[in-house]
Design brief:
Elements: H1 20-35, H2 41-51, H3 56-62, H4 67-85, H5 94-104, E1 110-113, E2 116-119, E3 142-144, H6 158-170, E4 175-179, H7 186-197, E5 203-208, H8 215-226, H9 235-248, E6 251-256, H10 276-287, E7 293-298, E8 313-317, H11 326-331, H12 340-346, H13 351-365, H14 369-373, H15 382-393, H16 397-407, E9 413-414, H17 415-421, H18 426-438, E10 442-445, H19 453-458, E11 461-464, H20 466-474
Parallel strand pairs: 3-5, 4-7, 4-8, 5-6, 6-7
Antiparallel strand pairs: 1-2, 9-11, 10-11
Helix pairs in contact: 1-2, 1-4, 1-5, 2-4, 3-4, 6-7, 8-9, 16-20
The protein binds adenosine-5'-triphosphate and magnesium ion.
Length: 480
């Protein structure tokens, strides 16, 4: 009956006349008529590869899956087709069998199965093939994104959108971290991304962790987006159901505000003890063989422990909006356009800070950028100050020491200088610096004074985020 061997030499050459899309459609419809289930992405990839004379190993590598997983799924697929057709279907004869059915029924949309005529429902439209797993008969994507904020204006971010699309759609990366300082536009970008890639997934689900649900509540809620049957009550069974679903269907799960699960007043990205279950879930999703993806959105870059292999996990750190930030100033109807570049540079083209500052310029200076910039210091609006103080409260004591020190420095400084001048154990200082980088509060700037690459690297200069520096400098007494 079903065939687990991969003797490619015995398969038919792939240059025969059979239209592969037609054969896939036939297999899909046969299965659907008998089982009520369509071919899933992996089954389709296996069938397509088989019809093209590919080995399981090739099918696996093209779809970023393990060969064992592909073989197991192939075994199930041949078994299902054998049951439907009443004859042994396997990797070696699948092509012949489907071809025979197509020839004997050409021109009709009815097929003879087990001596009975099977009528297939109306033909469906085909979607463009842009992913290795895209289906010829694309089903409708199930979207569960009701809790995502509505997108109003969207500017720039072409490179970031292209990068994310390539990772999620073409490379089938299983876990992507989208990281950036608060207000930089992470959520906005993710929502735009959904708009652009929704046809590539069977399911797209968006969830925010703002109210820190327990892992059990989170999973129960998530599974309700996927299955209509009773959700298991134990955590391990819930995880199993989810992982099985992710293998069977191509899903994109977007989890926003991940930093809510991390500890405050500790180094960045450490899960609070009660949320450890999330870490284990994400790790399993990253390590398991499937074609679904998880997009984690956070202002604190998660530890690399999950990201063991670049092939399956990636991280995108979001910078400012660049030139596109001008559109924000235009929307706010500011004047003195010749000074906009200066304003944008001072606020690092951070969209939210620029929006808040533009509102302040409207309210205090009737929209005149030149008058605002005539002040010697940057003025941080109350809204920006409020955001920065929330960030400040999350820092550990060592991080605050480093930030306070850097806020007093005129220029960027190198690592050894920090270690020498702050009286604190060097190991703690190094951890603090790493943590501040994960929070996007410290930036490396290359030191071009060094003579060689190695010297440049060793003496890389550290620079505090200028807006944060401004915030700290303006405090009457630096809080710790
Ligand atoms: N690409 C963009 N085009 C236009 N406006 C943008 C863009 N990105 C962000 N903004 C503006 O900045 C605001 C903040 O963006 P967003 O909420 O996406 O940031 P965030 O990084 O998710 O913040 P947080 O860390 O607080 O969740 C948005 O409400 C929007 O007004
Ligand atoms: Mg957000």
């Amino acid at each position: 009956m079903s065939e687990r061997s991969d003797e490619i030499g015995k398969t038919r050459p792939s240059n025969s006349f059979m239209d592969i899309a037609e054969a896939l459609k036939l297999a899909d419809e046969l299965l659907f008529t008998h089982t009520g289930e369509h071919l899933d992405h992996l089954q389709e990839a296996i069938l397509k590869g088989t019809l093209q004379g590919q080995k399981y190993a090739k099918i696996a590598s093209e779809n970023n899956l393990s060969e064992g997983h592909v073989r197991d799924s192939a075994y199930e697929l041949w078994k299902a087709l054998s049951d439907v057709l009443g004859e042994d279907v396997n990797k070696l004869n699948a092509r012949n069998i489907l071809e025979k059915i197509i020839i004997s029924n050409s021109g009709s949309i009815e097929y003879l199965v087990n001596g009975n005529k099977v009528t297939i429902c109306a033909k469906q439209k085909r979607s463009p093939k842009s992913s290795p797993l895209s289906k010829p008969n694309k089903k409708i994507t199930c979207l569960d994104i009701d809790t995502a904020p509505e997108l109003t204006e969207f500017y720039g971010r072409t490179d970031e959108l292209n990068t994310l699309k390539a990772w999620l759609v073409q490379d089938c990366v299983r876990l992507v971290n989208l990281v950036g300082i608060i207000g930089i536009g992470k959520t906005t970008l993710a929502i735009k991304l959904i708009e652009q890639i929704q046809t590539q997934f069977d399911y797209i689900v968006y969830r925010r962790l703002r109210y820190c649900p327990t892992i059990e509540n989170f999973l129960t809620d998530l599974l309700q987006s996927f299955i209509s049957s009773i959700i298991p009550s134990t955590l391990d069974r819930q995880v199993n159901v989810l992982l099985k679903f992710l293998r069977k269907h191509r899903c994109l799960i977007i989890i926003d505000d991940l930093q809510m699960l991390f500890q405050s007043r500790q180094y960045a990205s450490q899960y609070q003890a009660e949320f450890d279950g999330y870490y284990h879930l994400f790790k399993q999703i990253a390590e398991l063989s499937h074609a679904s993806s998880l997009l984690l959105i956070t202002s604190e870059q998660p530890e690399d422990t999950i990201a063991t292999r670049h092939k399956f996990t990636r991280c995108l750190k979001l910078p400012g909006l660049g030139e596109s930030a001008k559109q924000i100033l235009m929307d706010k109807q500011l004047s003195d356009e010749q000074m906009w570049d200066t304003l944008i540079e001072k606020y690092q083209s951070h969209p939210l800070w620029l929006e808040m500052t533009a509102t302040m310029i409207q309210e205090l200076f009737a929209g005149k950028v030149t008058e605002y910039l005539a002040y010697p210091d940057l003025i941080l609006s109350n809204a920006i100050t409020f955001q920065l103080s929330r960030l400040w409260l999350r820092l550990s004591e060592s991080e605050k020491q480093v930030m306070n020190y850097l806020a007093t420095q005129e220029d960027a400084v190198n690592l050894s200088q920090i270690l020498q001048e702050i009286s604190h154990p060097p190991t703690e200082l190094l951890k603090a610096i790493q943590s501040l980088k994960r929070r996007c509060l410290l930036e490396d700037t290359p030191n071009f004074l060094g003579a060689t690459y190695v010297e440049n690297y060793r003496s890389a200069l550290l620079k505090i985020n200028p807006i944060f520096k401004n915030y700290l400098s303006s405090l009457p007494l630096l809080p710790t």
